[in-house]
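G., before I forget:
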Amino acid sequence: MKARELPAENRLVAGLLCTQVLAQLSAYLDGELSEAEVEQIRSHVQGCTTCEEFGGRFATAVQKLREVEEEVAPDTDDRLFAALGLSR
Amino acid sequence: MSLSAAADVAVDSPDTALLERISSGDKAAASMFVTRHRASVHRFAKALVRDRGIVDDVLQDTFIAALTHAGTFRGEGSARGWLFTIARRAALKLEPREQPLSEDDDLETLGVRAGWGAADPESLMGTAQTREQVNLALQRLHAEDREILVLRDMEGLSGPETAEVLQLGLAAMKSRLHRARLRFLAALRGEEFGHESA
Ligand SMILES: [Zn+2]
């Protein structure tokens, strides 16, 4: 069977369109997909550079968020504990 | 509070135990609870309001309310979720939300802005991405995007907990999270298309 002609950025690979992969990236990362769905996305990504690259950048961006640590400035802390009438 | 009573509060006391003690006036427990959660609330407060000058107020109002109403925590869900709900209420009181984020853009448009199909250099998302760049990108986003990214990705709340704090259904929360992540990635790319009008 001849592959359907689609725009370069929206290929049909492994039975999934790139747009379908795009829509599922968060569900994929958050572990919300079934094994079969995960497998289908993996197969698509193996055959599609666009989704492989973008999926990787998307995952990295989310990972960046998870890694950022929050620091509270000492004077913010001082004001907070003073406002609450607490000592540290 | 006497020194011996203060020493009773174990550093690893669960939040529910601390809140119970706080509701009976235990200041050592209050200090421990505030120390444990202040960085998380501070981060969320920064996400909630645009005006940097009131972040401290949101932080203080949140803990004042939490310590005052410690007895109302019923232990359903996490104390963090409860605290974030209080923080959100405090922030909205101090700075009413500008018009809600319009969701006119389809996913493909958001994807393209985020670099979908673009030959971005590998270095763009390399390890060189500093904390400052992440924070700058977050600042360009609408508060609705920031709050969900902070709760779900930075603070690691579960999907249902995040939905509850934001008063959204689970499906609506997931849809908003995905869009917020795409807009965050776009902001990281340096595209200025934040929805906050100046
Ligand atoms: Zn693809």
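The pocket of zinc ion is lined by residues A 11, 13, 18, 21, 44, 48, 50-51 (CB under 6 Å). The two ends of chain A are 72 Å apart (CA to CA).

More on Monday.
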